[in-house]
Write a structure and sequence with these properties.
The chain has one domain: 3-Layer(aba) Sandwich (Rossmann fold). It is an alpha/beta fold and 230 residues long. 44% of the residues are buried.
Length: 230
């Protein structure tokens, strides 16, 4: 289990290189299995990467795209990850992909967990590619160290692929893949931009306490490709 680091001289070069890497993996998955799958994170950081990826030439109609996590808000809300993905990734050539969002009509995310577990069977798993981000507190996906649900979310023996999370240090109830489901991926990329995020990773590598910094639970259990630029 390792964190395999690659630093790029610019964000632009990172986005170009990573988009090609992802496209190549998806092409290989399609060639081998007939379909490929991509799980992505939201936030501001991946938007330009998504733009670049959307222009890559591949059989996007054979690609399933879903979210690593989602804020439990409607798509009309600026915080919606689904809205961001539709705006920044499901465009150009990638508009032909099949998207599986996480937000349902349930007002409480806890009531949607069972439905999402059932829906996941529609997506080709293990995920061919899963892209993670990381917060200043070391959270990844919506596995927040401050939440009451963190131990359950990091429990790899849990049956559920999803968990409803209520962070105390961030707005909105969330839906997140559990650690078990994150690890069920063939290629995991940790996509970071900025020296401050790199410093957080350097701190994370100094301990194994995943409850303190959940990102540790990922790279301590599988190989993770850290892709970053200052």
């Amino acid at each position: 289990m390792a964190l395999i680091e690659t630093k790029f001289s610019s964000v632009e070069q990172l986005n170009l290189d990573l988009s090609v890497q992802i496209a190549d993996i998806l092409k290989a998955g399609i060639a081998k299995n007939g379909r490929a799958s991509l799980a992505v994170s939201g936030g501001r950081t991946p938007a330009k990467l998504f733009n670049q990826l959307s222009t890559q030439a591949l059989d996007w109609e054979k690609v399933d795209i879903t979210l690593v996590d989602e804020r439990w808000v409607e798509e009309s809300d600026p915080a919606s990850n689904a809205a961001m993905v539709k705006r920044e990734l499901l465009i150009n050539k990638a508009a032909a992909a099949t998207f599986y969002g996480l937000k349902t009509s349930e007002t409480d995310a806890r009531n949607a967990v069972s439905v999402l577990n059932e829906n996941l069977v529609k997506i080709k798993t293990p995920f061919d590619v899963l892209i993670l981000g990381m917060g200043e507190d070391g959270h990844t996906a919506s596995l927040f160290p401050c939440s009451e649900q963190i131990e359950q979310g990091l429990n790899t023996n849990i049956e559920s692929d999803y968990i409803a999370v209520t962070p105390t240090t961030a707005p909105n109830q969330r839906m997140s893949l559990t650690l078990k489901s994150i690890l069920n991926s063939k290629n995991i990329f940790l996509h970071l931009v900025g020296e401050s995020k790199k410093r957080i990773i350097d701190i994370a590598k100094q301990s194994d306490d995943a409850l303190e910094m959940p990102i540790r639970a990922v790279f301590n259990n599988t190989d993770v490709k850290l892709i970053w630029a200052a």
